[in-house]
């Protein structure tokens, strides 16, 4: 019987390895989809981009359903967290911490308009 248990353990390990391979391939597919998502250049920032490095190009994509739902949960306690999380997920080209407050507000309205 011990021999059977060892074989079962080996088969379990094989399943685990194949499961990991499947998860890795799904993760790669999700990353590819994210990279193919349409990002649009955000123009008209209140700062006109003058306080960012010259080569900075800020791009954003439309909000997804999950992000719109997250925005509906805004309250006084979680407003900064929710808005920062949504912006972080929807823009690229600049670090969220480097954005000016006026530009951040503009981007929130821009994302909502685009969606």
Describe the structure.
With 115 residues, this protein is mainly alpha-helical. It has 2 domains: 36 residues; 79 residues. The protein has 4 helices and 3 strands, in the order H-E-E-H-H-E-H. It has a 3-stranded antiparallel β-sheet. Helix 3 packs across helix 4. It is globular. About 10% of the residues have low confidence.
Topology:
Blueprint (H helix, E strand, L loop, with lengths): L1 H35 L3 E2 L17 E2 L4 H7 L7 H12 E2 L8 H14 L1
Antiparallel strand pairs: 1-2, 2-3
Distinctive features:
115 residues; 2 domains; mainly alpha; three-stranded antiparallel beta sheet; 59% helix; 3 strands
- Taking all residues together, what is the mean pLDDT? 78
Report the helical percentage.
Answer: 55-70%
Number of helices: 4
- The oligomeric status of these chains comes to single chain
Briefly note the structural class of the backbone: mainly alpha
Helix and strand sequence: HEEHHEH
Euclidean distance between termini CA atoms: 61 Å
The Rg value, from CA coordinates, equals: 22 Å
Q: Which shape, going by the Cα principal axes?
A: globular
Spatial arrangement of strands, main beta sheet: 1-2-3
**Residue share in β-strands:** 5-15%
Number of self-contained structural domains: 2
Major sheet details: 3 strands, antiparallel
Strands, count: 3
């Amino acid at each position: 019987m011990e021999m059977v248990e060892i074989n079962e353990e080996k088969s379990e390990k094989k399943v685990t390895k194949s499961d990991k391979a499947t998860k890795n391939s799904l993760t790669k597919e999700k990353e590819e989809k994210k990279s193919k998502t349409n990002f649009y250049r955000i123009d008209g920032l209140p700062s006109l981009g003058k306080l960012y490095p010259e080569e900075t190009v800020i791009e954003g994509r439309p909000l997804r359903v999950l992000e719109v739902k997250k925005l509906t949960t805004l309250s006084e306690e979680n407003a900064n967290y929710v808005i920062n999380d949504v912006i972080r997920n929807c823009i690229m080209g600049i670090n969220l911490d480097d954005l000016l407050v006026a530009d951040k507000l503009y981007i929130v309205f821009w994302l909502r308009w685009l969606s």
